[in-house]
Amino acid sequence: MAWDAEPAAASPRVCCQLQEDEAAAVHRTARLRGLCLGQLGNMRPIQENGELRIESRLDKIIEPLREKIRDLEKSFIQKYSPVKFLSEKDCKRILVTGGMGFVGSYLMDKLMMDGHKVTVVDNFFMGRKRNMEHWIGHENFELINHDMLEQLSIEVDQIYHLASPASPPSYMYNPFKTLKTNTVGTLNMLGLAK
Ligand SMILES: O=c1ccn([C@@H]2O[C@H](COP(=O)(O)OP(=O)(O)O[C@H]3OC[C@@H](O)[C@H](O)[C@H]3O)[C@@H](O)[C@H]2O)c(=O)[nH]1
């Protein structure tokens, strides 16, 4: 047959065969559907019971966890010491270097409770996390891990420069670094204060 020849009309025998095949397919599909529906019908009560049992068991496990999360959220909200509200004019942005240390952490607490916005800069050399962790997440508080020997670019109204390895063991740990922190670090802070 030429490639562009019209397809021959289907003979009555072929048509009949096609109709039989179609009828058989429809019948098979209907049987399958019936079977599936029947099985689903049989399974539903078992499945529903199963789901109910699982759900009630999950609830028993999840409920205490939900309770714990609620408690944690409450303690998280309540954990800050009360801070004064200051008007925009009175509220200062204050930088405390070495604010994780002994002196700096007391100063930071006072400034925070007075209602100022406090940025602590510390290289975590000697400072203790527990000195400031009670302010983490507070909207007026910011902690920056920074070495005083590097330039710092920040806009503040006041600076308290307390970053220095002050206690004798840390002072002597690396004397050159100590000298540089006390000189170059202080110069950097003076540059920021200009
Ligand atoms: O280069 C540095 C060196 C130090 N620091 C930080 O500066 C802070 C210094 O705090 P320290 O507690 O060591 O020193 P402080 O001056 O606050 O208190 C110190 O002097 C008074 C004594 O009574 C205290 O016992 C002693 O710790 C630390 O948080 C340290 O990590 C820097 O950020 N950069």
Structure described in brief:
This protein has 194 residues and is an alpha/beta fold. It is built from four helices and four strands.
Notes on the structure:
This protein has 194 residues and is of the alpha/beta class. It folds into two domains: 11-78; 93-193, 3-Layer(aba) Sandwich (Rossmann fold), CATH 3.40.50. It is 54% helix and 10% strand. The chain contains four helices and four strands. It has helices at residues 12-78, 102-113, 168-173, 175-193, and strands at residues 93-97, 117-122, 141-145, 158-161. A four-stranded parallel sheet has the order 3-2-1-4, with helices on both faces. It is elongated, with a radius of gyration of 38 Å. Residues 1-10 and 35-43 have low confidence and may be disordered. The protein binds uridine-5'-diphosphate-xylopyranose. Residues 98, 100-104, 122-127, 148, 162-167, 170, 181 line the site of uridine-5'-diphosphate-xylopyranose (UDX).
Total strands: 4
In quaternary terms, these chains amount to: single chain
Q: How would you characterize the largest beta sheet?
A: 4 strands, parallel
Could you state the order of secondary-structure elements as H and E?
HEHEEEHH
| CATH topology group of the largest domain | Rossmann fold
What is the mean predicted local confidence, pLDDT? 81
End-to-end separation in angstroms reads 97 Å
Structural class: alpha/beta
Per CATH, the architecture of the largest domain is 3-Layer(aba) Sandwich
What is the level 1 CATH name of the largest domain?
A: Alpha Beta
The number of distinct structural domains comes to: 2
GO cellular component, one term: Golgi cisterna membrane
Membrane topology: Single-pass type II membrane protein
Organism: Bos mutus (wild yak)
EC number: 4.1.1.35
